[in-house]
Every structure is written in C-alpha cells, then in structure tokens.
Amino acid sequence: MGSLGPARWWEDCHGLDLSSTPDIVSGRQPRAEMRRFLVIAALFVSRCGAYDRTFIEGANGNLGEALQFLREYDNEASSMCTRVTEAQWLYVTNITDQNKKRMVDALSLQAKLDRVSWQKAIQFSWSSLPDPMARRQLNMLALKGRVALPQDKQEELTKIVAEMKEIFNRARVCPFSNSASSQCDLSLEPELTRVMANSRSYEEQLHAWKSWRDATGPKLRSRFINYVEIANEAARLNGFRDAGEQERAVYGVDDLMNQVSEVWSTLAPLYRQLHAYVRSRLRSHYAPPHRINPTAPIPAQLLGNMWAQNWKNILDLVLPYPGKRRADVTSEMLRQGYTPQRMIQISEEFFTSMGLKPMPVEFWHKSLLERPTNRHVACKASAWDFCNRRDYRIKQCTEVAMDDLLTTHHEMTHIQYYLHYSDLPYVFRDGANPAFHEALADAILLSVTTPKHMHRIGLLNNITDDYETDINFLLEMALDKVAYLPFAFIVDQWRWQVFSEGTRNMNTAWWELRSYHQGVIPPVSRSEDDFDPGSKYHIISDQPYIRYFISLVLQFQIHQALCTAAGHIGTLHTCDIYRSREAGRVLADIMSVGASRPWTEILRVATKGSATGLDARPMLEYFKPLSLWLRVQNRDEKMIGWVTSEQDSALYEQWSRGGSFRVDNCITTTILAVFLATCYSRYGFSH
Ligand SMILES: *[C@@H]1O[C@H](CO)[C@@H](O)[C@H](O)[C@H]1NC(C)=O
Ligand SMILES: [Zn+2]
C-alpha cells in the first residue's frame, strides 16, 4: 500500500485540500503565476503550523506520459551520473587543474539536467497517479535540492558556498610557540587536529582552538547570512516554509524534529554520566590555575577534538583499567604479512560468509587501494558507485593497521548496498534515508570491532573475557559514539533555528545549545563578531548534519536486529554476525529495496515489528554494562550534569542585548538545576 497519497499531507489542515485545485499550478502557466501560487501556498502552510505543506504539482495526470518521462529521466540521469562520477574519480585520484576543470564542467552539466528534470517532474499531478512507484519517484524528484531557484540565484548560491569553502580550506594559523622564525602556516588538517588530539597543555589547546575560530568565523559570517537568505528563498519556491523544513522533508516523516529530540533526551542521562566521569578525570589532570568546576560545563578545548565532538583521543587520560589495554591487532597483522589486497579480501569474506555478494571484476581492476607515488590524491577513504550497474570501486590509501581494516569493512558495506539496489530505477538507488548508508556501514563495524571477531579471523590468539577488559572496550566505544550524540544533535538544531528565526545572535544561540546539551563552554569570551559555527566544515559547505545523529542511533537498532536474526545470546556489545546466513538475509532485505520504500517500513520489517522509527533502546542496551559502571564511578561526584552559571554564560551572552535573554536564561538554568538536583539525589547516593 503506497503511503504517499495526497490526503496524508493535508489531514491536519482543517480539511482544506489544495491538491484538488490542480488548475492553479501547471507547467504550462507562466512562472510568475506559479510564484504567486507558491507564496499563497506558503502563507497557508505557515498558518497550518505543523509539518503539513503543499507540494509543487502540475495538472498532467496522464500515467503513460509520466512513465515515459521517468524512463527517459532514468537513462539520462544514470549516464550523467556515470560521467560526473568518472570525472570526480579522475580528479580525486590525480589532483591537477586540468582534472578539476573537467570535473567542474561535468557538475555544471548535471546541474542543468537536474533543473530541467525538476521542471518536467512538477508538471505531473503525481500525487494522484495510480502507480505507487511512479508516484514515489516523482515525489522524490519534486523535493530535490535547490533547483527551484532561478538560474542567477542558484549560481549566486553556488558561488557563496564555494567562497566559504575556499576561505575555510585556506585558513592558516600561527604555531603556539611563536618565535620570529616560525611561519603562520598551520592548517586544520593535519596540524591543528593533531594539536587538539595529542597536546595535553591547556594553553596550547586553547591557542589552537581560538586561532582556528579567529581564522574562519569572522570572514565567513556575512557570507553565511547571505547563504541563509538564498537557501530559504529556494525552499519557499519549493513549497516549504524555510530551508530547515526542506531538509527535514527528505525523511518523509511528519515529526522528525520531535523524534530526534525525544531520542536525544532518552540518551542524555547516559551522556551526562560519561561527561561527569570524564570531567572528574580532567580535573585531576589539569592542575590549578586551570580549574575545572565539578558542577560546570567543561572548557571546550580539552576533549581531544576541535569541536569536542569525539573524545577518543583522550582515552589515555580516562582509560578505566590501564593494565588491561586492548590487544594490539596491528602488530599481529604485520607479523602475518598482511597487505591492503589481503585486507580487502578479508572484508569480502566477511560478507560472503553471510551469503552476500562477492566484489565484481571491475572492483578489483579499478579500485585504488594504496597511495600512488606518481601523483597527488585525496586520501580520504570512500566507496564509489558509477551508476552503470557494473563499475564499483573503493578508494583508500590503505595502511596495514587495525583502523584501516575496520575502514575497508565500512567502505565495503557501502559497495554491498550499491550492489543490492543496482536493479532499481536511478532515483531509488540510494539509502532508505540520508542516514542509512552510514548506519549500515557502522552497524557492520559493531560486529567487526569485537575481540570475538578478531579472534575468529585469526588476529587475536585468546580473548581475555573479563569484566575490566569489557569496560575498557565499552568506554572506548562511548568516547566515540556517546560523546558524539549531543554535537550531532545540535548542529542542525542550530541551523534550523537560524533558517526559521533569522541570523540575529547566531553565535549566542550556538553556545546556548552547546552548553545546554553538550555541557561545554568556550574557554575564552565570545561575541557576535565571532562566528563559531563557521569553524565546522559541514555548516559552511551546505551539508545537512542530522543524518549523523540519526545514523548513530540507527546503527544500534540495525546491529540489534542483525544479532537477533543471528541468534546471538548474551550482551549486545559482544555480538558478531560473521557467518550468519540469517543476519545476511536481513541485511540483504534492507539493502535491496534501496530508497524505494519508506525507511520506517524497512525498519519495521528488519526489526520484526519492534520499531518503526528511531529508537534509543538498542544503544542504551549496548552500553548498559558501562552505564552501571559509570554510576558507581560517579557516586562521589557533586553533580551528574552541569549548571551553566551566569559567569559561564557571560562568556557568550551579552546581557545588555535585552532583558528577555536574561529571563530565558534564568528560567533555563533554574529548570536545569532542579532537574540536576533530582539526578543528584537519584544517582548521587544510590550506590
Ligand atoms: C594525471 O592527469 C593529467 C591530466 O591533468 C595527465 O596528463 C596525467 O597523465 C595523469 N597522471 C596519471 C598518473 O594518470
Ligand atoms: Zn561511510
């Protein structure tokens, strides 16, 4: 049963049904007429309040013509995709100006095709077509990107984003120990990232943190404001209230914002336990005068990462049982004479052991598995689909090391996904939602990372099966995944807020979210002349972020579903689905429908009905042993969580800006304090 019938979009809007007035928008009418309709529609939608909104939809209800269009689109878009992907591959595996130009040319041809196809797609009254697959394809095409903008505006947007990326990529800062001879030429990758990861000096990390923000934010701020305006304009032309609503619509659920907020608040207590434990360890490392207050947020530069989004680099400061370090698989790999080729074969065997597909011939001929010496390449690992149902490749400058072995499994999961949905029409050859590809690839790693799996593939002689090793393992996973939750959550909370409420006090809003959800504060005072969100590439390069949050949660749901299918007994974090044909079948079922079904339905089938949306419980279950351990560790902590004092929030809020801020903040702080007091009495003394 197709769930995309027209009624769905309007049911909460007091019975008004714009889809019954198709004469208003038609591809045959002049554009001005259409704009007027859209403005009216936008006004109407904004009154409706909820998710409901209009679609751009024309008068042509002829199914034959729609199918004809889709067939043509499928051919043209696939071959365009092949052409663009080949140009991109050529460039990233051989970085020259000439190759860049070829890639840019191909991309602009593709943009043209996208625009023309969108204009054709919206001429159909697709929501009333009797063929559900045609309906879904046209719906997905009509929702696409920024193509609704007039060409000059679209070019302006592209130009602004390109400028922002350029500023970001060219930003350089001075070293910490600034002698006369030293040059100010440190970039984010690799130098500053290394300082954040490896330095244990409060001042040096502060220097890297602040100079990176000084070198990016202020130059990006005005361009970003421009970008917000045009992105919103594109969204309105496409029938949305703002660009945030357009981004959320891709997920096809009415209440994405509520779903993610709910899931985050379910997971937040686990995060606060981790936060309290890490804060207490940092307190013992960073001696006075660098006070870390036991009831306050943590200074944002101390967590091993430029945005405090991943804490695994400070594992050495917080490892619970240093005597029980994870066995070093890398040295065993070297001892056994592993090669990149062998690592890829091991990954392939992981999938074939579950009845999934071997890599095709082209994959072995054309993948780039080692860093070439005769040219510049972009080494970030990636998996490629050339859209011709033949050609699939991995690009990875593989080193013989455990992390790289995990990466080959991750990238090969993407290839498995490509192979499984290769028979579908072009529009459906994609993840079930923007988070699915990553969620599957990371779910596979939850199996591959286990000591049990390393043992089964002959890289660990004996598994030390004791409590302390287990806790070390889970804490390391938590620094990677639990620590990331609030950051992955707030990036788009902030961006959606800017799209819907405007660009005033953007930096304050950013820090309110960071201190409230993430429990970090800036180590030095910030103002609206700063633009700290601009220190993050995804924000200035127009890349949606909520997918990372969704993928974090979803990977545990999928892991659990696969482990259930595999008949795993025992705690979730010890499950390895290797060699399970049953798990392989569940995986194949998820992958082979691509984006042709709603992801909620795919999830329902995969979990045998236990979930139809995001669900925090599998992640909580995975970390349960750690969460119990953390509570015991934290029993003497003054507070689980944090209160942002006035002194803290004065770092990023100017009171003079108007009374309302102060009131809001007081209320927030009070609510938080009451809440935390409750936590304290619940957990503080219970063990
Ligand atoms: C890299 O690309 C250039 C064209 O810009 C070409 O002349 C050269 O042969 C390529 N190098 C390799 C190793 O393929
Ligand atoms: Zn990936």
Describe the structure.
By secondary structure, the chain is mostly helical. The protein has a domain at 63-142. Helices cover 57% and strands 2% of the residues. The chain has helices at 7-10, 31-48, 63-92, 97-121, 132-142, 151-170, 188-198, 202-237, 243-249, 256-285, 315-318, 329-335, 340-352, 361-366, 402-420, 436-448, 451-456, 467-481, 485-501, 506-518, 537-540, 546-565, 581-592, 599-606, 617-622, 624-633, 646-649, 659-683; strands at residues 298-299, 382-385, 392-395, 520-521. The strands form 2 sheets. A two-stranded parallel ribbon has the order 1-4. Helix 8 crosses helix 9 and helix 19 (485-501) runs antiparallel to helix 20. The structure holds 2-acetamido-2-deoxy-beta-D-glucopyranose and zinc ion. Zinc ion binds next to helix 15 and helix 16.
What features would you highlight for this structure?
687 residues, 28 helices, globular, disordered C terminus, binds zinc ion
SSE layout and pairing:
Layout: H1 7-10, H2 31-48, H3 63-92, H4 97-121, H5 132-142, H6 151-170, H7 188-198, H8 202-237, H9 243-249, H10 256-285, E1 298-299, H11 315-318, H12 329-335, H13 340-352, H14 361-366, E2 382-385, E3 392-395, H15 402-420, H16 436-448, H17 451-456, H18 467-481, H19 485-501, H20 506-518, E4 520-521, H21 537-540, H22 546-565, H23 581-592, H24 599-606, H25 617-622, H26 624-633, H27 646-649, H28 659-683
InterPro entries: Peptidase_M2
GO molecular function: carboxypeptidase activity; metal ion binding; metallopeptidase activity; peptidyl-dipeptidase activity
GO cellular component, one term: plasma membrane
